[in-house]
């Protein structure tokens, strides 16, 4: 297998160089012709297994295109991914709930601009992330007196200190045991905002899951969510849901049950 891969790499590079020398229009037509030829080669009544195999191949092509698209998007905005810097409405749910002067802890913060926007609003914000490259990028892109970042594995070493808000935006879908994770974070703050990816937000995902193919939005996702599943996990972790909304993603605001009893 290793020898085959070693033999394929030079051949692939040679084909790529040949296509790269063509015009954009010729490259697009060549790709379209290839895709059409592969579909036609299946015949009019292909076996289901053959179709599934072709779909799996096409998913690899899609992943390559998506990777290139994201890399170019970051280049277009000087290292800032437009998903995290232009799409302000996507984070409006969070921004509308935090208030000036409040202390905010964002776990799995990455390098999203809403951290800076909260700091500019007057919040005192701490972002923590397990990945050194993300923390380094966040520090290079965002500087504000109200904003700091720390490198931390919040699963193995939960944050300490007291905050007014805890935020987990697109984090718990990557966690093996989200209930234990959310429970472990509860001493940090009495209020929580969670955002997660929805389960069936596109027909393609439903089809791919039915065919036994990779279907989640991210290969690292352990699960994707329904509103019911999110509320169930929050409740099991000792949080009472105050607000729950489904749209581009699923968002919830919750209060620590213990805090209500005091």
Defining traits:
alpha/beta, 262 residues, 47% helix, single chain, 2 domains
Topology:
Blueprint: H1 2-20, H2 24-41, H3 48-76, H4 82-85, H5 92-95, E1 103-107, H6 114-121, E2 124-129, H7 132-141, E3 147-151, E4 165-169, H8 178-185, E5 191-196, H9 203-210, H10 227-236, E6 239-246, E7 250-256, H11 257-260
Parallel strand pairs: 1-2, 1-4, 2-3, 4-5
Antiparallel strand pairs: 5-7, 6-7
Q: Bin the strand percentage.
A: 15-25%
CATH superfamily of the largest domain: Vaccinia Virus protein VP39
Q: Percent of residues in helical segments?
A: 40-55%
The low-pLDDT segments are: none
Strand order, sheet with most strands: 3-2-1-4-5-7-6
- Chain-averaged pLDDT: 92
**CATH domain class of the largest domain:** Alpha Beta
User: How many helix segments?
Assistant: 11
Largest sheet: 7 strands, mixed
The whole-angstrom Rg is 22 Å
Instruction: Indicate the structural class.
Output: alpha/beta
Q: Any idea of the CATH topology of the largest domain?
A: Rossmann fold
Overall description:
There is one protein chain. It contains eleven helices and seven strands. It has two domains: 2-76, no CATH class; 82-260, Rossmann fold (3-Layer(aba) Sandwich), CATH 3.40.50. α7 (132-141) links the parallel β2 and β3. Helices cover 47% and strands 16% of the residues. With 262 residues, the chain is of the alpha/beta class. It has helices at residues 2-20, 24-41, 48-76, 82-85, 92-95, 114-121, 132-141, 178-185, 203-210, 227-236, 257-260, and strands spanning 103-107, 124-129, 147-151, 165-169, 191-196, 239-246, 250-256. It has a seven-stranded mixed β-sheet with strand order 3-2-1-4-5-7-6, sandwiched between helices.
